[in-house]
Amino acid sequence: MTAAALTPGAGARRDGAARARLRFRRRAADAALWSACAAALALVVAPVVWIVADVASRSLVHWHWSLLTRTTVGQGGGLANAIVGTLVIVAGVAVVAGTAGIGGGIYLAEYASERGGSLLRGASEVLAGVPSIVLGYLGYITLVVALHWQFSLGAALIVLSLMVVPYVVKATEVALRQVPASYREGAAALGMRSGYALRKVVIRPALPGIATGLIVAMAIALGETAPLLYTAGWSDHFPTLHLTHSPLGYLTYVTYVFYNEPYASSHQLSHLAALLLIVLVLILIVASRLLVAATQRHAADRT
Questions:
Q1: Distance between CA 159 and CA 150 in Å, rounded?
Q2: pLDDT tens sequence for the chain (303 residues)
Q3: Which of 55, 58, 109, 158 could form a disulfide with 176 if both were Cys (CB 3.0 to 4.6 A apart)?
Q4: CB atoms near residue 230 (< 10 Å)
C-alpha cells in the first residue's frame, strides 16, 4: 500500500529530472552554437581589423592634404591623378557592366528559353571563374597590341567590365525571380504590355538586389590591379577621357608598384594609396546601404 502510494511521486520526480536534463542539454547546445558563431565572426572580423589598423598606422603619419590636389611626380608628389583615374574607371565600369549586366539579367529572368538560359548561365559562370590576370593579358594582346589602342581607358573598361558583368547578371536575375508571380499576373490582367509591366511593376521591387549587385561589381573593379597593368598602363597626369591611346593613373598601381620601389617616398605613397582604397570601399558599402534603403519601399515583401 505504501509503495503503491509512493510510486506516482517517484515517477513525477523522475520526469522532472529528465526535463531538467533536457533543458540543460538544450541550453548547452545553444551556448555552444552561439560560441561557434562568435568565433566564426571573430575569424572574419579580426583579419579585417588587423589589415585596416596596419594600413592606417603606416599611412596616417605621412598624411598631408596636398596629397589630394597634387599629381604624382616620379616616386613622390601626390595622388590626385590616381584618385581621379580610379573614379573614372569605376564610373565607366558602372555604366558599361551595369548596362550589359542588368540587360542580361532581365533577359535571363524574363525572356530566355530554358535551354538557352541554361547555356547563357553556364557561360556567365565560366566567365566569372576566369582569373583576372588572364582577362588582362587577353585584353593586352587583342586591344592594346592587335587593335593598336595602346594603354587606354577603353581597354581597361572593356576588360574590367567583362570581369564583373557576371555578378551583375546573376544579381539582377535573382532579384527579378524573387518578385512574386502575382505582380506579373496583375499587370497582365490590367492589360499592360509586357515591356511596360516590366518597367513599372516588376523591376521596381527588384531594385534593392540589382543595386547591391552593381555596387559589388564596382567594389571588385575598384580593387583590381592585374588587368589594369596590362590595359591602362600608368600616367602621372590626369585622365584625358579618350578611350584609346590614353594611359591613366589609378590607386592600385601605386599600392602595388610603388611598394616595390627602393625609395621611402614611394613606400609612403603606396601606404597612402592603400588607405584611400579602403576609404573608397567603405564609401561604396555605405552608398549601397543607402541605395538599398531608398529603393526598399518598392521591395516585394513590403506592403
A1: 14
A2: 445 444 556 666 677 777 777 888 888 888 899 999 999 999 989 988 998 898 888 888 888 888 888 998 888 888 999 999 999 999 999 999 999 999 999 999 988 888 888 899 999 989 988 999 999 999 999 999 999 999 999 999 999 999 999 999 999 999 998 888 888 888 888 888 888 888 888 888 888 889 888 988 999 999 899 999 999 999 999 998 899 999 999 999 999 999 888 888 889 999 999 999 999 988 888 887 887 777 665 555 554
A3: 109
A4: 23
State how far the Cα of 243 lies from the Cα of 303, in Å rounded to an integer. Answer: 46
CATH hierarchy code of domain 65-298: 1.10.3720.10
Q: Are 161 and 96 in contact (CB under 8 A)?
A: yes
Reading the block at residue 126, the C-alpha cell is 565560366
How far apart (Å, rounded) are the C-alpha atoms in residues 268 and 44? Answer: 28
Angle between helices 132-139 and 153-177 (to 10 degrees): 130
Pairwise CA distance, residues 74 & 58, whole Å: 21
Q: DSSP labels for the chain?
A: -HHHHHHHHHHHHHHHHHHHHHHHHHHHHHHHHHHHHHHHHHHHHHHHHHHHHHHHHHHGGG--GGGGTSPEETTEE--HHHHHHHHHHHHHHHHHHHHHHHHHHHIIIII--HHHHHHHHHHHHHHHHS-HHHHHHHHIIIIIIIS---S-HHHHHHHHHHHHHHHHHHHHHHHHHTS-HHHHHHHHHTT--HHHHIIIIIHHHHHHHHHHHHHHHHHHHHT--HHHHHHT---SS-----SSS-----HHHHHHHGGGSS-HHHHHHHHHHHHHHHHHHHHHHHHHHHHHHHHGGGSTT--
Cα separation of 221 and 26, whole Å? Answer: 46
Do 168 and 101 meet the contact criterion of CB atoms below 8 Å apart?
yes
